[in-house]
Amino acid sequence: MSRPSCPRCARPLDHCLCALIPSLDSRARVLILQHPSETRHALNTARLAALGLRNAELLVGERFDDLEERLARPGYRSCLLFPGEQAQPLAGFAEQGVEPLLLVVPDGTWRKARKLLYLNPSLEALPRVALPEGLTSRYRLRKAPMEGALSTLEAVVAALEIVEAPRRYDALLAPFEALIDGQIAAMGEETFRRNHGE
């Protein structure tokens, strides 16, 4: 029998994170496209980002039929937050115009995020932007697959702190930190130190 869960944060009721999730405004709009396999992930940081930002939306799927209309939203300049050779620094792209950004963020493993791009050609057509090098994930329970790899939530926070500076968005990380602390507590401090070298 499964434990009852919170309808908002989808966590078990005895581990509900809603009290830690802020409600922050941003000039930029954030559109998170989540691969369906990520909805079952214990952290599901994309959901935390969408819940904590008033100007964010989370869509789950592989193909998004109305994506072109969403990307053509009046008053916004759309861009895809995804690294690659064609990606330009986010800060430079943001400075090139006065309109707020519509920041499109794929959520999934690298392979599944690339699949989202392949299945939705309008994403490939967007200007691609990247975060600065040298950022480090706070997710202490897993080794990043590559240098600078962040969770979706961490990437959204880093991006907003660039384009909305000097405004801060690290309050979005509070439920993420609580999830990590809860996982460490469940495994025990000694097991954590032995397996993760801290």
Automatic annotation (TrEMBL):
<dbReference type="InterPro" id="IPR005636">
    <property type="entry name" value="DTW"/>
</dbReference>
<keyword id="KW-0808">Transferase</keyword>
<feature type="domain" description="DTW">
    <location>
        <begin position="2"/>
        <end position="188"/>
    </location>
</feature>
<keyword id="KW-0819">tRNA processing</keyword>
<comment type="similarity">
    <text>Belongs to the TDD superfamily. DTWD2 family.</text>
</comment>
<keyword id="KW-0949">S-adenosyl-L-methionine</keyword>
<protein>
    <recommendedName>
        <fullName>tRNA-uridine aminocarboxypropyltransferase</fullName>
        <ecNumber>2.5.1.25</ecNumber>
    </recommendedName>
</protein>
<dbReference type="GO" id="GO:0008033">
    <property type="term" value="P:tRNA processing"/>
</dbReference>
<dbReference type="GO" id="GO:0016432">
    <property type="term" value="F:tRNA-uridine aminocarboxypropyltransferase activity"/>
</dbReference>
<dbReference type="InterPro" id="IPR039262">
    <property type="entry name" value="DTWD2/TAPT"/>
</dbReference>
<dbReference type="Pfam" id="PF03942">
    <property type="entry name" value="DTW"/>
</dbReference>
